[in-house]
Specification:
Blueprint lengths: L2 E9 L3 H12 L5 E4 L6 H8 L6 E6 L26 H6 L7 H19 L5 E4 L5 H14 L2 E2 L20 E4 L12 H5 L13 E6 L6 H6 L4 H10 L2 H9 L3 E3 L7
Parallel strand pairs: 1-2, 1-7, 1-8, 2-3, 3-4, 4-5, 6-7
Helix pairs in contact: 1-2, 1-8, 4-5
Protein backbone atom coordinates (compact mmCIF):
# COMPACT_ATOMS: atom_id res chain seq x y z
CA UNK A 1 0.00 0.00 0.00
CA UNK A 2 1.36 3.44 -0.95
CA UNK A 3 1.83 5.63 2.10
CA UNK A 4 1.47 9.41 2.00
CA UNK A 5 2.34 12.05 4.60
CA UNK A 6 -0.04 15.00 4.23
CA UNK A 7 1.83 17.90 5.80
CA UNK A 8 0.62 21.46 6.42
CA UNK A 9 3.42 24.02 6.49
CA UNK A 10 3.81 27.21 8.54
CA UNK A 11 2.18 26.31 11.87
CA UNK A 12 2.85 29.32 14.06
CA UNK A 13 3.12 31.87 11.26
CA UNK A 14 -0.11 33.62 12.30
CA UNK A 15 -3.27 32.90 14.25
CA UNK A 16 -5.28 32.59 11.03
CA UNK A 17 -2.83 30.07 9.60
CA UNK A 18 -2.93 28.14 12.88
CA UNK A 19 -6.72 27.92 12.82
CA UNK A 20 -6.68 26.73 9.23
CA UNK A 21 -4.12 24.01 9.92
CA UNK A 22 -6.12 22.72 12.87
CA UNK A 23 -9.22 22.62 10.67
CA UNK A 24 -7.28 20.74 7.98
CA UNK A 25 -6.43 18.06 10.55
CA UNK A 26 -9.83 17.96 12.26
CA UNK A 27 -11.97 18.07 9.11
CA UNK A 28 -9.55 17.08 6.35
CA UNK A 29 -6.70 14.74 5.50
CA UNK A 30 -3.71 16.49 7.13
CA UNK A 31 -1.61 14.14 9.25
CA UNK A 32 1.35 16.35 10.19
CA UNK A 33 2.29 19.99 10.59
CA UNK A 34 5.56 21.84 11.11
CA UNK A 35 5.96 24.64 13.64
CA UNK A 36 7.90 27.87 13.12
CA UNK A 37 9.09 28.17 16.72
CA UNK A 38 10.71 31.60 16.49
CA UNK A 39 7.48 33.47 15.66
CA UNK A 40 5.08 35.02 18.17
CA UNK A 41 2.06 33.01 16.96
CA UNK A 42 3.85 29.74 17.77
CA UNK A 43 2.47 30.04 21.31
CA UNK A 44 -1.08 30.24 19.90
CA UNK A 45 -0.40 27.26 17.64
CA UNK A 46 0.77 25.08 20.51
CA UNK A 47 -2.22 26.08 22.62
CA UNK A 48 -4.60 25.03 19.84
CA UNK A 49 -2.80 21.73 19.35
CA UNK A 50 -3.43 20.65 22.96
CA UNK A 51 -6.89 19.47 21.93
CA UNK A 52 -5.44 17.36 19.08
CA UNK A 53 -2.69 15.18 20.53
CA UNK A 54 -2.70 12.89 17.48
CA UNK A 55 -1.52 15.72 15.22
CA UNK A 56 2.20 15.25 14.58
CA UNK A 57 4.15 18.50 15.04
CA UNK A 58 7.68 18.86 13.73
CA UNK A 59 9.91 21.91 13.19
CA UNK A 60 9.70 24.19 10.15
CA UNK A 61 13.08 25.81 10.66
CA UNK A 62 12.73 29.43 9.60
CA UNK A 63 15.59 31.65 8.40
CA UNK A 64 13.41 34.22 6.60
CA UNK A 65 10.81 35.76 8.87
CA UNK A 66 11.00 37.55 12.21
CA UNK A 67 13.73 37.44 14.80
CA UNK A 68 16.04 34.46 15.34
CA UNK A 69 16.10 32.31 18.45
CA UNK A 70 19.89 32.52 18.61
CA UNK A 71 21.80 35.67 19.51
CA UNK A 72 21.93 37.61 16.21
CA UNK A 73 25.62 38.33 16.83
CA UNK A 74 26.32 34.59 16.56
CA UNK A 75 24.61 34.21 13.15
CA UNK A 76 25.72 37.31 11.22
CA UNK A 77 25.09 35.88 7.75
CA UNK A 78 21.39 35.29 8.48
CA UNK A 79 20.36 38.68 9.85
CA UNK A 80 20.21 42.35 8.85
CA UNK A 81 21.46 45.37 10.77
CA UNK A 82 18.39 45.21 13.04
CA UNK A 83 18.98 41.59 14.01
CA UNK A 84 16.03 40.34 11.94
CA UNK A 85 16.26 37.56 9.38
CA UNK A 86 16.92 38.57 5.79
CA UNK A 87 13.67 38.21 3.87
CA UNK A 88 13.26 35.91 0.88
CA UNK A 89 13.74 38.75 -1.61
CA UNK A 90 17.28 39.20 -0.25
CA UNK A 91 18.21 35.70 -1.39
CA UNK A 92 16.30 35.93 -4.65
CA UNK A 93 18.05 39.19 -5.48
CA UNK A 94 21.44 37.67 -4.63
CA UNK A 95 21.32 34.14 -6.07
CA UNK A 96 25.08 33.74 -5.73
CA UNK A 97 24.86 33.83 -1.92
CA UNK A 98 25.42 30.62 0.00
CA UNK A 99 24.22 29.87 3.51
CA UNK A 100 26.93 29.61 6.18
CA UNK A 101 27.06 26.18 7.79
CA UNK A 102 27.85 27.28 11.35
CA UNK A 103 25.17 29.99 11.31
CA UNK A 104 22.55 27.56 10.01
CA UNK A 105 23.51 24.98 12.63
CA UNK A 106 23.50 27.51 15.47
CA UNK A 107 20.06 28.87 14.60
CA UNK A 108 18.55 25.44 13.90
CA UNK A 109 19.64 24.20 17.33
CA UNK A 110 18.35 27.38 18.96
CA UNK A 111 14.96 26.84 17.30
CA UNK A 112 15.00 23.25 18.51
CA UNK A 113 15.51 24.54 22.06
CA UNK A 114 12.60 26.94 21.62
CA UNK A 115 10.51 24.08 20.20
CA UNK A 116 11.31 22.09 23.34
CA UNK A 117 10.21 24.99 25.54
CA UNK A 118 6.89 25.17 23.71
CA UNK A 119 6.12 21.47 23.16
CA UNK A 120 8.05 19.76 25.95
CA UNK A 121 10.50 17.78 23.82
CA UNK A 122 12.82 18.21 20.85
CA UNK A 123 11.24 17.90 17.40
CA UNK A 124 11.29 14.41 15.92
CA UNK A 125 11.42 15.91 12.42
CA UNK A 126 12.92 19.11 11.00
CA UNK A 127 12.89 20.81 7.63
CA UNK A 128 13.54 24.27 6.15
CA UNK A 129 11.00 26.99 5.42
CA UNK A 130 10.91 28.21 1.81
CA UNK A 131 14.55 28.92 0.88
CA UNK A 132 17.71 26.90 1.52
CA UNK A 133 20.63 25.29 -0.27
CA UNK A 134 22.89 22.24 -0.10
CA UNK A 135 24.66 23.74 2.95
CA UNK A 136 21.34 23.85 4.80
CA UNK A 137 20.77 20.23 3.83
CA UNK A 138 24.19 19.27 5.18
CA UNK A 139 23.56 21.02 8.50
CA UNK A 140 20.16 19.37 8.84
CA UNK A 141 21.54 15.95 7.98
CA UNK A 142 24.31 16.28 10.56
CA UNK A 143 21.87 17.45 13.25
CA UNK A 144 19.42 14.66 12.41
CA UNK A 145 22.13 12.03 12.88
CA UNK A 146 23.38 13.68 16.06
CA UNK A 147 19.93 13.89 17.67
CA UNK A 148 18.46 10.71 16.18
CA UNK A 149 15.65 12.59 14.44
CA UNK A 150 14.28 12.72 10.91
CA UNK A 151 14.79 15.48 8.36
CA UNK A 152 13.70 16.36 4.85
CA UNK A 153 16.52 17.45 2.52
CA UNK A 154 15.17 19.62 -0.28
CA UNK A 155 17.99 21.53 -1.89
CA UNK A 156 20.67 19.11 -3.09
CA UNK A 157 19.32 18.18 -6.49
CA UNK A 158 20.05 14.58 -7.39
CA UNK A 159 22.50 13.98 -4.55
CA UNK A 160 21.79 10.70 -2.80
CA UNK A 161 22.03 11.12 0.96
CA UNK A 162 22.65 8.08 3.17
CA UNK A 163 19.62 6.68 4.93
CA UNK A 164 18.95 8.03 8.39
CA UNK A 165 19.40 5.17 10.81
CA UNK A 166 16.13 3.97 12.29
CA UNK A 167 13.85 5.62 9.71
CA UNK A 168 12.04 4.48 6.59
CA UNK A 169 13.17 6.43 3.52
CA UNK A 170 10.76 8.90 1.93
CA UNK A 171 10.88 8.07 -1.77
CA UNK A 172 9.00 11.06 -3.20
CA UNK A 173 8.79 14.70 -2.09
CA UNK A 174 6.00 16.86 -3.51
CA UNK A 175 5.86 20.56 -2.64
CA UNK A 176 2.31 20.68 -3.93
CA UNK A 177 1.85 24.42 -4.45
CA UNK A 178 5.18 24.75 -6.28
CA UNK A 179 4.50 22.11 -8.92
CA UNK A 180 4.44 23.52 -12.48
CA UNK A 181 0.88 22.40 -13.18
CA UNK A 182 -0.53 24.09 -10.05
CA UNK A 183 -1.57 27.59 -11.10
CA UNK A 184 -4.41 28.60 -8.81
CA UNK A 185 -3.79 26.49 -5.74
CA UNK A 186 -4.27 22.76 -5.26
CA UNK A 187 -7.77 21.73 -6.31
CA UNK A 188 -9.97 18.71 -5.73
CA UNK A 189 -9.52 17.87 -9.41
CA UNK A 190 -5.76 17.55 -8.91
CA UNK A 191 -6.47 14.58 -6.65
CA UNK A 192 -9.39 13.07 -8.53
CA UNK A 193 -7.43 13.22 -11.81
CA UNK A 194 -4.32 11.88 -10.04
CA UNK A 195 -2.20 14.79 -11.21
CA UNK A 196 0.27 13.93 -8.44
CA UNK A 197 0.81 10.44 -9.88
CA UNK A 198 0.09 8.62 -6.64
CA UNK A 199 -1.60 5.74 -8.44
CA UNK A 200 1.56 5.07 -10.47
CA UNK A 201 3.65 4.36 -7.37
CA UNK A 202 4.53 0.99 -5.89
CA UNK A 203 3.44 -0.43 -2.57
CA UNK A 204 6.87 0.34 -1.09
CA UNK A 205 6.77 4.07 -1.86
CA UNK A 206 6.40 6.70 0.83
CA UNK A 207 5.37 10.16 -0.36
CA UNK A 208 5.80 13.42 1.54
CA UNK A 209 3.32 16.06 0.33
CA UNK A 210 3.53 19.66 1.53
CA UNK A 211 0.55 22.01 1.47
CA UNK A 212 0.08 25.65 2.50
CA UNK A 213 -3.36 25.73 4.07
CA UNK A 214 -4.86 28.42 6.21
CA UNK A 215 -7.16 31.34 6.71
CA UNK A 216 -5.89 34.89 6.18
CA UNK A 217 -5.15 37.73 8.55
CA UNK A 218 -3.16 40.93 8.26
CA UNK A 219 0.10 39.26 9.24
CA UNK A 220 -0.16 36.84 6.33
CA UNK A 221 -1.11 39.59 3.91
CA UNK A 222 1.88 41.66 5.03
CA UNK A 223 4.44 38.86 5.18
CA UNK A 224 3.60 36.18 2.61
CA UNK A 225 3.22 36.13 -1.16
CA UNK A 226 1.08 32.99 -0.82
CA UNK A 227 -2.29 34.31 0.35
CA UNK A 228 -5.61 33.45 -1.28
CA UNK A 229 -4.22 30.14 -2.49
CA UNK A 230 -3.94 29.03 1.13
CA UNK A 231 -7.73 29.26 1.44
CA UNK A 232 -8.21 27.20 -1.71
CA UNK A 233 -5.83 24.51 -0.50
CA UNK A 234 -7.59 24.42 2.87
CA UNK A 235 -10.94 23.88 1.14
CA UNK A 236 -9.40 21.14 -1.00
CA UNK A 237 -7.79 19.31 1.91
CA UNK A 238 -11.11 19.38 3.79
CA UNK A 239 -13.26 18.31 0.83
CA UNK A 240 -14.80 14.86 1.55
CA UNK A 241 -14.22 13.83 -2.07
CA UNK A 242 -10.48 13.94 -1.46
CA UNK A 243 -10.70 11.75 1.64
CA UNK A 244 -12.94 9.35 -0.27
CA UNK A 245 -10.40 9.24 -3.13
CA UNK A 246 -7.63 8.16 -0.77
CA UNK A 247 -9.82 5.49 0.77
CA UNK A 248 -11.16 4.16 -2.54
CA UNK A 249 -7.60 3.69 -3.85
CA UNK A 250 -6.29 2.19 -0.60
CA UNK A 251 -3.67 4.91 -0.14
CA UNK A 252 -2.64 5.07 3.50
CA UNK A 253 -2.18 8.45 5.15
CA UNK A 254 0.63 8.42 7.71
CA UNK A 255 2.54 11.02 9.73
CA UNK A 256 6.23 11.73 10.13
CA UNK A 257 5.99 9.79 13.38
CA UNK A 258 5.26 6.63 11.40
CA UNK A 259 8.64 6.79 9.63
CA UNK A 260 10.49 5.57 12.71
CA UNK A 261 11.35 1.88 12.39
Amino acid sequence: MVKVIIEADDFGMSEAINLGIIKSFRDGITTSTLLMPNLDAAVHAVALSKDYPELFIGQHTNFLLGKPCADPRKIPSLVDENGHFHRSRYYRNNPELKFVYEDVRTETLAQMERFKELIGHYPAHIDCHSIGDEIVDQAFFDIAREYGIHTTLKYSGDKKWPDLKGYHRVTNLLEAGALPYIHEGVSVANFLDDDFGLLDLTADDIVEMHFDVGFLDQFVLDNSSYTLLRCRELATICDPRVRDWFESHSIERISFGDLKQ
